[in-house]
Amino acid sequence: MRRIGKYEILALLGRGGMGRVYKARLPVAGRIVALKLLAPDETLTALLGEAEVDRAFCAEAGLLGGLRHPHVAQVLDFDRDARGRPFYCLEFFCQNLGLLLAETYRVEAPARPLPVRTAVRLGLEVLDGLDRLHAAGILHRDLKPFNVMLDDEDRAKLIDFGLSARRGERRARHGGLAVGTPCYTAPEQEADPDRADERSDLFSVGVMLWRMLTGRLPAERPGPRTSPSALEPSLLGAFDEVLLRAVAHDPAGRFQDAASMARALATCQKDWQAALAEACLLRQEDGTRHSAGSRPGPRAEARTVRPGEALLVFPLDLLWRPLPGLAADLSPLPGDVVADRAAGLVWQRSGSPHPLDWQGAREYCAGLDRERFAGRTGWRLPTVDELASIVARAEGTDGYCLDPVFDRRQGRLWSADRASRRAAWCADARLGCVCRQDTDCLLHARAVCRAETT
User: What CATH code would you report for 3-91?
Assistant: First the structure.
């Protein structure tokens, strides 16, 4: 097995202009970490020189290592490999905001909007972490969804400080070297990276919030923009003023610090919840009801489905959401179980009390079967097709008005289907989508069995 320093390399997670990031394991202790190794692009080295690239990489490790905050990733180690290249190790996280949004390298393509409560919570956590950076005089300068990791409890963690700078610092750089990521970078930073200040980072957060709440990006040109609620009516107009201010072309028109932006966002959420309560009350008075109707039972046999063929095999749209018409006909039963009468299935109402790796999730379901949980046998991990029927969320405000039948503490759920030797498919019950994770990641298990089993 390949090693970098004392670390066993398990997989390549990604590469960028500054280096490569690997999934690695610490021998004996077995802890999984993210190892970032300096391996710069030849163009970057030619523009800046080897010494400056090395200095910038080590400065990134120093910036991260000197911070302690719940929403900033923690540096665990720093060293150099046998060739003298510096590397440092961070906490490893299985999920990030970019994956949550189903964002691709075609950034302009529509993404998967998040539920309002999830989007606001993540936005507030990012702003909290950013407030800590700014208090230390650090500008991130490359905030984007793939630089916001999510830990096992779905808390946001800021990473990738390779382009960061101290407030007022002017780094040696080539005139043609861009700093930041298109679509998420403030206009003044694109024109001149040395002009970036705290408001430039807040612009990036504003774009991320816009993306999380609507699935789209704000228009890039100066001038009037389409309001977020025109793109996503379930926002009920509550976030329009804050988001339009956050992505103002002129820095003077934006929020001036992370704390004030966070307060405004929290107020918007209260306004949205009040408007939602009124909308849900009107729906109850109108007698609106939703029914899944009858449908064929979903596939029950586990199989291996490669990522490239997943959208041809699973009942999902291009953003990995269950297709319309899959919603189950659910009703609670005694014994902490829920029946899907349309498909002839019985589900656990909750699931494993703690997140488990994939093998642990299988063993958990096997234990339920041995114990005849709820007086039934045949308990097992569900397939993606079965999970798709219980993670589908109604469109618009309906999804917020309907009372959840299942325990929402179990958010991300393992399926029985594998994606490869190292990965398995899973579903996010809060976001209503399917994704894949390495089998050593920690998710919950929710078991299922046939209704006729006793």
Answer: 3.30.200.20
